[in-house]
Amino acid sequence: MVKEGFPFVITPAVIALIFAYLQWWPLVVVFAFLAGFMAFFFRDPARRIPDEPGIIVSAADGKVTRIDETDAGKTVSVFLSPVDVHLNRSPIAGTITKVEYIAGRKGPATSNEASFVNERNSLTIENSDLTVVCTQIAGILARRIVCWPDAGDRLERGQKFGLIKFGSRTDLLMPRSVDVAVKLGDRVVGGETIVARYAAGGQVQATGVYDGAEAE
To answer: DSSP characters for 123-162?
Structure first.
């Protein structure tokens, strides 16, 4: 379990113990269930990161709800329900060249519009082959976007870099030259599922970040 989850687990667990001492069993059940759910939500399962060259892995667990292409690049958007693992993982090995937080709404993350209007945090990650932009997007239930590294830090492919508490969305903006390997409705696993392939050895980049302008 990630450390950010401990307060969410310990608080209802302690309350459940107090109610157990008082023998208020219905409330014991409620708070014990809440503690169990929080432990489940903040789980941190082991992942097997693929090591083949020329691949981009999913930055999050969830369902692919949008795939599009604009002048800025190709985007794969993944919706995370409250029962998905909410850790975010780096889609490629590379250096973070920019971290940009954009204040916005906390609308439903189920809507594709959330990619353009909701509160979000974008990481630009670059290596010798390509540049991608990974965006953490808050939803109506999300209360905090957590991002541990800063600009200048290096990430390995599949390395954990943050999480979004409760329902959310994660977008991955890639160069137009990549071949997307997933389709709408697919379930993806952060750090494991290959979402795109590219020809390693040539520098390509996604040129845009989410500034609130909706894709056409």
So the answer is: EEEE-SSEEEEEEEEE-SS---EEE---TT-EE-TT-EEE
Catalytic residue of the set 77, 90, 115, 168: 168
DSSP 83-117: TS--EEE-SSSEEEEEEEEE--B---TTSTTHHHH
- The CA distances from residue 84 to 79, 153, 197, in Å, are 9, 27, 25
- How many C-beta neighbours within 10 Å does residue 48 have? 9
Q: Is the pTM higher than 0.85?
A: no
pLDDT by residue for the chain (216 residues), tens only, comes to: 677 667 778 888 889 899 888 888 888 898 898 887 777 777 778 889 999 999 999 999 999 999 999 999 999 999 988 788 888 999 999 999 999 998 877 776 677 777 888 889 999 999 999 999 999 998 776 567 889 999 999 999 999 999 887 668 899 999 999 999 999 999 999 999 999 999 876 555 554 543 433 332
Active site residue 90: no
Contact between 117 and 103 under an 8 Å Cβ cutoff? The reply is no
Domain 55-205 class, CATH top level: mainly beta
Sequence ranges of the domains in the chain: 3-41, 55-205
